[in-house]
Design brief:
By secondary structure, this protein is mainly β. It has one domain: Thrombin, subunit H. The protein has 1 helix and 8 strands; from the N terminus they run βββββαβββ. The protein has a 4-stranded antiparallel β-sheet with strand order 1-2-3-4, with no helix packed on it. A hairpin with a 3-residue loop joins strand 6 and strand 7. The longest helix is centred in the C-terminal third of the chain and has 5 residues.
Length: 103
């Protein structure tokens, strides 16, 4: 059975530095998190108001054992100005709001 996370045009795609995760954002505000090993497998999704205009993985690791944790963290922002920090375990929080679209 195929899962569909997006029902509108995808606006952003980014990959984790090790290539194991992909994050997608769309016009309706859906963010999809995918595992890339042996094809694409949906892990989780988030829904926000307005189009997702930017997604980026965190890419920081201070200790080797924390690299996997940091590799799963990513930011996404939208047309309505909010920036969120999320992971692939369904944790998501707004970290800031700007006066315009996040580009």
């Amino acid at each position: 059975e195929e899962k569909v996370l997006h029902k509108s045009e995808i606006t952003n795609i980014t990959f984790s530095s090790d290539g194991t995760r992909m994050v997608t954002g769309d016009e309706q505000g859906t963010v999809g998190v995918w595992r890339t090993h042996r094809g694409l497998t949906p892990i989780c999704q988030y829904s926000k108001s307005g189009a997702i205009t930017n997604v980026a993985f965190c890419g920081l690791a201070f200790e080797e054992e924390s690299a996997e944790k940091w590799n799963s963290l990513f930011f996404f922002g939208g047309k309505k100005g909010s920036v969120c920090l999320a992971d692939d375990l369904k944790n998501c929080s707004e970290v800031c709001k700007v006066g315009g679209s996040v580009k």
